[in-house]
Amino acid sequence: MKKAWKWIISTAIVLVSTSLIVILNVYGDIKSTANEIYTPMEDKSSEIRMQPVNITTEMEPFSALVLGVDEREGDVGRSDTMIVLTVNPTLQTTKMLSIPRDTYTEMVGKDFKDKINHAYSFGGMEMSMKTVENLLGIPIDYVVKVNMVSFVDIIDILGGVKVKNTLNFNFQGEHFPIGELVLNGEQSLKYVRMRYDDPTGDFGRQNRQKQVIQGVLDESLSIKKVWNYKSIFKTLEKNVEMNVPFEDLLSIQKNYGDSLKKIEQLYMNKGTNTKLDGIYYYMPDEGELQQLQEDLKKHMEI
């Protein structure tokens, strides 16, 4: 399960997209889990947003950084998956940008540039958040980190996810034919890992990631899945950290749920792969990066 698609997005959607009635019914369990995985940031300052976002009374647009980390004993790991979400309740839309893990950018707090996924190994969630802020020019309000184990477990708890596969391929002993597929956790992991045999490379993998995300959302909204909520919560407590207070989770569930149903994927795919001192980096296209910055700022009403 190394270097796989490891994201909190699947788990976060489970938390914030289930019906309000269910949240009220299992309030005690959810609050306990939310408190267990809550990890406050020591430095909340941002040069872009001077005051913390208000999602409880003002229903302001907000952003979240999703980190998928392969943590092993004795190794803090790297965030091989980095996804930025911006959520606008007025437009009822969510924009999702997958940042290539090899993106060459400034390590905020250090005096050098490196691959963006190394920010986590240098300074954890906080440095990752500030480095992404610097790259995209938007405030990152929330950051959520997930270990890969929960990806497989939650999909299995939900009974699998449906995807529409557009590329016939084999990967790690599994065959994925073209058409609608129902994938379990391990199959989903393989489905989103493959990139070298995809003619569109990492960007094809990003499309498959989005399909699995949408599949998790669809399954989590099914009332019959809710009865497995205790198993989901146990998985979250073991594998998730986030700086989202419980009260904000409730506000997102109550006021932002419709926005999470419509996800538009943005791409960073016009850059070039460059070798520096024997190491490959992804150099973003400046024009594309500027356009992404403008689009995300506009969506966040900045």
UniProtKB/TrEMBL annotation:
UniProt keyword Cytoplasm, yes or no: no
Domain Cell envelope-related transcriptional attenuator intervals: 78-220
Keyword Membrane: yes
One matching Pfam family: LytR_cpsA_psr
Gene3D superfamilies: LCP protein
Chain ranges passing through the membrane: 7-27
UniProt keyword terms in alphabetical order: Membrane, Transmembrane, Transmembrane helix
Family per record: Belongs to the LytR/CpsA/Psr (LCP) family.
Full protein name: LCP family protein
Organism: Solibacillus faecavium
